[in-house]
Amino acid sequence: FGPSQDLGGGNTLHISTQAFTLGASVGRALPLNKEITLLPFGSVALGHTTMKASANGLSGSSSDTYLQLGFGAGFQLSPSVVLRPALNVLAGADLVDDTIFSFSVSFALPR
Fold this sequence. Notes:
This protein is an all-beta fold. Helix content is 0%, strand content 76%.
């Protein structure tokens, strides 16, 4: 699945990319005080990315398989709010930048 681009002169470039990961993570809740709970975690996953392109009867493809290692720690500020910084390292990946930093804020919905 991917976009197609008109190159002019009746020529079209078809591009498709696919990526998947499969892994597991583990973590634990560690109360720091009455208001804040530390939620450290670690994860490991196997990832695979494929890119294909074709135009004018010519085609090419490239793929990469890599190990994704992740770790971080969430900070539970209340029963419904968690701040979660994380760092993922793509070991063995032929990508330009193989380190990913993320930060998320989670809000629990009331029952």
